[in-house]
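All the exercises in this workshop are built on plain-text protein records. A record pairs a protein's sequence with a compact description of its fold. The structure tokens are whole numbers drawn from a learned vocabulary of backbone shapes. Once this layout is familiar, the rest of the handout is easier to follow. An example says more than a description, so a record of this kind follows.
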Amino acid sequence: MGVLETEDPRGGETMSVPARSEAVPGVLEGVRAVLLDMDGTLVDSDSAVERSWRTWAVRYGLPEEEVVAGVHGYPAPTSIRRLAPWLSEEEVADAAQVLLDLECTDLDGVVAAQGAGELLAVLAERAIPWAVVTGSGAGLAKARLAAAGVTAPFVVSLDDVAVGKPDPQGYLMAAAELGVDPAACLAVEDSAPGIAAGRAAGMPVAALRGLSGELSITHLGELAAHLRRIG
């Protein structure tokens, strides 16, 4: 706890008083592991994601604005089924591969999200285990994390689960891999399907982008500051 200098109202003299500590959000008190979404959370890839989807939309004759407005947070095949319900499952798979090829070759501007370095440093200092849980496939996750300069202990990708977000399977798999009870894992997300997945796994959620979670943050540096204050 710091010290503040203030004037004594009785005599005009300066005196020292303990500074008031900012409270740690109660939801963090029992956290033993942190599980981070990738796109838009740990990695700032918004521009690259949008470019790829726009190019894909043009190829499939779909309105670009409608496409980019509704895909964030969902696995690509899920979005493609919704956007083009006339496609067969084989065609959905082909369309998803077209998108994947676009995404893997467009990494321009992909960087670590604001506060990511600070958060990962705090997790290392506190020996708090962490992992990435993403709706992207393993190849794309590897490419974007590398472009952002982030080395994750391990990644649960869309390739590792039978069903993607908002299903909780990915988060439950990550918790099991870390050997931590899901209730003691903090999921960090920036989309409605991701938040739903974390909650369905029984985890408290730190939400970005103004979304509602057990904890709301504007960037990862805020979460780092909260964790640093835990005694």
